[in-house]
Amino acid sequence: MFSAAPTPRRVLPPARAAAETDRTEATAKPSGGPEGAEPSPKAGSRNPFFDNAKYLAIVLVAMGHSWEPLTDGSRAAEAFYMTVYTFHMPAFIIISGYFSRSFDMRKDRLQRLVTGVVVPYVLFETAYAFFKRWADDDPGQPISLLDPWFLTWFLIALFIWRLTTPLWKIVRWPIPLAVAIAVLASVSPDIGDDLDLQRVLQFLPFFVLGLSLRAEHFAMVQRRAVRIASVPLFAAALVMAYWAAPRMTSAWFYHRDSAQELGTTWWIGAVMTLALFGCSIVLTACFFSWVPTRHTWFTVLGAGTLYGYLLHGFLAKGSRFWGWFDDYAWLHTPLGEVAVTLIAGAVVTALCTPPVRKVFRFAMEPTMAWAFRKDPADTARARVSA
Fold this sequence. Notes:
By secondary structure, this protein is mainly alpha-helical. It is built from 17 helices and two strands. It starts with 17 loop residues before the first helix and ends with a helix.
């Protein structure tokens, strides 16, 4: 999937290619990725930009999880943690929305939604529950498909977002409406934890934004001027996060609680939701501006980010359950923080590789033809095409 020869840097497909992209997605097969059953062009025509972006984002997700135990004793770690949490999941969600533009209620797409999102959700929600019972010595940990634990919230969110895609296609102002819903959710403590609806609703604007984007929008952020501007913008974000670290809770970046549950008033929650949405859009654009558009050594790993995302959760949680960060004090030194960061990146990279995908494909990308009715029309079309 990648070439050993150096390839000149190029921009993404121009606007006139968008219609052709949509036609390609309409007949695409599912491909692994944290966005679930992503429509994938025929072999050789995948856009490396998106695979590169997914891989780099999943590396940042793993690094962010490795920094969490270090944030109590390191203001610098907290600053990096806040900065990365501002944009890494929004970047994933925007890409998920972008590749959901052609989603409708067609039979084959609903089947891919079940096999690529629902099945992994059920399997990993169950596996995480058993893992916590064993690793954390917590035999009472329930298996609840209504209360996502740790990383599985993203799968149930993607399922809900993608089912609502046809609705977002027909409303006149989808992004302002999605932002309004996110703001209302952030000031509604009665929503509760079922299906992690707070996250589903508060992250919704990023998915709807992805639905509204076209190839030329990604090309715009790849301009040299944007790449140059992203450097001082990221520096300013780090400085701001360093200042904010002792003054605010990083729970704001999880989008899983209402303002009242975070101990503040409703109007501050509304302001914070809007402010964080703006900051996330700016930093996500900066992130996209530095993503390579050519084939690189890690492009092939972008198709396996769902594997890295879900599998690294066992190690991320296990390191807490087994007290690694408490037993090894040197991990809290600057050198230890660097080591933890590099280890996290290496582990999630290994989990995205083709051998790992081959082993766990039964859970991430099952075919499950036995579970679905065979449409006589599909059989007739197959005969005609043959």
